[in-house]
Amino acid sequence: MMKVVRGFYSVAHAVKLCRPNVVCAYPITPQTEIVENLAEMYANGELENCRYITAESEFAAASILVGASATGARTFTATCSQGLILMSEVLFNAAGMRLPIVIVNTNRALSAPLSIWNDLQDSMALRDAGIIQLYVENNQEAHDAIPQAYRIAEDKRVLLPFMVCMDGFKLTHAYEPIDLLEQSVVDSFLPPYKPAAYLTTKKPLAFGCYAPPHVYMEFRVVMQNAMDRAKAVMGEVFREWAEVSGRDWGGHLEVVYPEAKFFVISMGSIVGLLRKVVEDLRKKGYEVGLIKLRTFRPFPAEDLRKSLSDAEKVIVLDRSVSMGYEGNLSIELKAALYGSSADVVSMILGLGGRDIPREFLEKLIENAILGKEGSGFKGVKDFEEVIP
Amino acid sequence: MRYFGRGHGACPGCGLAIAVRNVLNALDGKCFVANSTGCLEIISSQYGKNAWGVPYIHSLFDNVAAVASGISEALKAVGREEEGKVVVLAGDGATADIGLTLHGMFDRNHDVIYICLDNEAYQNTGHQQSGLTPLGEATTTTPAGRIQLGKTGRKKDMVAIALAHGSPYVATSSAVLPADIRRKVKKAANIEGAKYIQIHCPCVTGWGIDGKDVVKVGNLAIETALYPIVEFENGKLVSVRRIKERKPVEEYLRPQRRFRHLFVDPRGKEIIAEIQRIADRNAERFGLDLKKE
To answer: What are the angstrom distances between the C-alpha of B139 and each of B135, B142, B145, B249?
Structure first.
C-alpha cells in the first residue's frame, strides 16, 4: 500500500510486521520517533507476543536485548550517536555471543562538540564489533531492509547482530511515498524465529563462558568465518527479496555505469544526490560512474576490486573520519584496491549535518576528475583554532 | 542432578559456593541464572569446565540486572514463564558500584530475584575496595598507610536502596545460614516483582582467614550486629535474626587479616570504636538484641 510517511514510521511499521518479541530502547534524537511509533503500536495492542520495555539507558536497552535474545526472543532496538557508543560494550558482547539482535542506527555525529545532526561517525566506531552494517539510501530501502535484516541475522550460517544505518533527519524525518509491506508478504519471507541455541531449563546451556588463551582465538575465528558466510547469505536474501517485493536494491554494491573510467563511491542518503550529479556530469561528457556501497560489514572487497578493475580514478566521499588518518570508507577502499593502479581521491564532507549542495558536489567531482581537486576536508570555512 | 558443582574452582571454604548451591536447591534448579563478571563467573564458567546444571548467562560486569530483565520479559513474551524463575547472581562490586544500573530493574519491577553475593571487595582481581567494603578494611586500593588506615567511607546501604525503589521483598542472609538462604529464596520466588537478597559470603583469601574458620567468622559478623540478618516485605520489616548476647566487634575483626592493622596502629582504636558504633546503630535500628527482661 503506497502511503506518504516519514522515515521513522517506515522503520517502525516494518518492525511491527516482523513480529518482534522484545522491543527495548532509550530515546535519542533523531531516533526517538521510531520507538515512539512502536510504543504506540504496543499500547494499542498491535504487537502480539511482544513486550515493549522503556530502558533507563541505551546501555541497559542493549543489555536487556542480550538477555531476551539469548532466551530465544526476536528483538529490536534503535539508537544513534552517543546512544550507540553507550551501547558499544554490550554490542561487542552480543556479537561474541552470536545473538541476532536487529538495530536501526539513525546516523548522527558524535560529541564534542555536541551535534544532533547527521554524519556516519557513530556507526563507524562499531566497525570492528562483529555487527553487520547495511547503509540505506532512502526510506523505502530502510523499510525493506528490516525483514531482510532479521532473515540474515537469524540464518544459522550467520547468527550475528545486524545494524541498519539510515541518515538521521535526512531520512528519518523526511516524507516519502512508501510502499508499505503487507503482513502476508513479510510472513511468507520471514519465518518465526527458531533459535539455534537458547536459555531453557529443558536443556541447560551456558552462554558467555570465559575463554582462556588456549580457546579464545578459535571463537574469534568462527566469528570472522560467520561474517564471510554472511556475504553469500546476504546475496541470496537480497535476490529473494527482489522477487518477493519486486524491488531490487542490488547486492553489496550497486554500480551505475559499470564501464566508466571515473567512479564516485559513497554510502547512505548522499547517493540519491550523487545519481543526479553523475547524470549531469555525463551530459557534460565525463565518463563517470557511481558505486553505492550498501554493505560496509562484512566489507565486499572482492566486489569492489572487480567493479573498479579498469577504473582510472576513484573519488571516495566520506562523512566520517578516523582522526589521525583519513575518511573511514577511503581507508577500507584503498586496502581493498591494494595493488591496483587506480588513483584514489578521498574527500571528507558533510560532518555534523554540514549541508552538501548539489552544485558544490558537482564542482568537487568535476575538479577531482580533472586533477584540480585533491584529498581532504571539503566545504570548510576559513577558521583559526584558538588555544588560550 | 547437581545444579552447581562439577568442576567449579572456588577456594576451599568459599562462601559463594555454599550460597549458590543453596539458592539453586531452593528453586529445585527451575531457574535461569544471569551472572555478572567476577569471582563466581570465573570459578564456574570456563569454556569446557562449565559447572552449571541450570541455564546460565554471563554477559558483562555492569549489566546483569538488565540482562535478567530481558530474560524475564522474553519468557513472558513467548509464553514460557512457567519454565523457571530468573535469578541474578552478582558480586558486591557488580551490584553496588559498576552495575548499579539495577535501578532500572527495580524501577520497572521485572520478575527477578536479584542476589548479591557480598564478599565485601573485588576479590576475584585480588581484593580491591568496592562500595560494600566496610569501614577500616585494608584492601589493595585502600591500603593501611601513613596517612590513610584502610577504607575511610561506609559500606553502602544497598538494602535501603532496594527498599527505596519499592522492592516487594528485600532481605539479607549469610553463607553460614544455609537454611535461612533457602527459606528466603523460596519466599522470594513466590512474590512477583524485583526482589533483592544480599548474602554475606566470607572470602578466605581476601579476608585473610582459614577455610576452616569461615563459619566462625561468618557467624561473628551476625553476632556482633555488623551484618544484620533482616527481611522486609513490601517495605515492612517482617523478621530479624536476634542476637542472644551481642559480642564486641573486636572479636569479629581480630581474626581477619584485612583488619589486622587496626590492632597494630594506635589510630586503629578510634576506627574500631567507630565500627562498634555502626554495630550499635544496626542493633538499635533493627532491634537485634534479645531483651533480657
So the answer is: 11, 5, 11, 19
